[in-house]
Design a protein that fits this description.
The chain is built from 10 helices and 5 strands, in the order ββαβββααααααααα. By secondary structure, it is mainly alpha-helical. The longest helix is centred in the C-terminal third of the chain and has 66 residues.
Length: 438
Amino acid sequence: MSGAAPGAPKPLPSSGPKSLREMPHPLATSSSEEMGPELSPSPDLLLPRGAADKDLSLPNGTPVDTSSPASSSSLLNRLQLDDDLDGETRDLFVTVDDPKKHVCTMETYITYRVTTKTTRAEFDLPEYSVRRRYQDFDWLRNKLEESQPTHLIPPLPEKFVVKGVVDRFSEEFVETRRKALDKFLKRITDHPVLSFNEHFNVFLTAKDLNAYKKQGMALLSKMGESVKYVTGGYKLRSRPLEFAAIGEYLDTFSLKLGTIDRIAQRIIKEQLEYLVELREYGPVYSTWGGLEVELSEPLEGVSACIGNCCTALEELSEDMTEDFLPVLREYILYSESMKNVLKKRDQVQAEYEAKLEAVALKKEDRPKVPTDVEKCQDRVECFNADLKADMERWQNNKRQDFRQLLMGMADKNIQYYEKCLTAWESIIPLLQDKPETK
């Protein structure tokens, strides 16, 4: 970053999966000091590893140092994903702002300015500014899923529909989408693995992204291909208990959020209907005051009071629409993304189990387990480690986000009722003074 202090942090190293025995169970406790049970790819299918001390390697051939202190979990503590994060611990900052409407012969679309400031050695410059449209963000997410299949990729806002908004070029819709896209990039920026992805670098720096997008499947990683390859032909016998618990938790979590989302939308709809009635209700008192000379002042006061309550209710509804509902929808989509990663993990384990059984069924003595089976086991361990680290990070982010969300909701409701109380209290002197003038 330009003008960075001399003591600016060094670029964070890329992370590798942590040793399975060091990974905490993501659902066991919110404390990082308590560790979950030891993890294995399958309770009864552990291979005796003659070369147990050798370095693991990813399916694309990249060596993995499992003893690296820069693993996904250890970097979590260094990054501290809370909102009160000390800026000095970060070396990459990304913002999305300045939406602009483009009208062409064939289409009309919105672009957003993506600004990057960094001290990382992977970047040639300390600052970049590019313009991106929604489909560019979608390209980035697809590339991250292809090249990092073992990791949880943050969700994008829905492409075609944001409930309650009709005009996708309205200021409200564009601002809601801008916030969601900004959150999407910040999630990636805070991730100790995804933030070092080459496609993310290209997205942030390339002036002409179309040249990279046209390459299509040519840039698909070997690991992505291997995961896609095992989508059929193998059936998982049973998930390990801890991953079964994660799956059950995600099902319940998304169900609860979906229910809250539906009820919240009904509440907002009813508030808006009530607001229409209030706007008709208040002026009636003002009209009545024109006919009642002695009551005109208190009647005008009541009319003004109802008008103030209308304004307060309108602000409350806007806050729920713009701040509350988007967080619910993001986490509903987040849970679906996590379920997809779980399915990929299951597919890799199913392939491993099938290959292991095939080896066991062969009658000839095989003193050494075939290399392809060992590589398959490595993929399972890589999936397990990355999934557990991402689940722990996601849980920490979720707790922080929902604390802030609920605190904000409480604060907005308090403000609403205080404004209504102040409005009604303001007309009491008008009602009390009138009898005293007689």
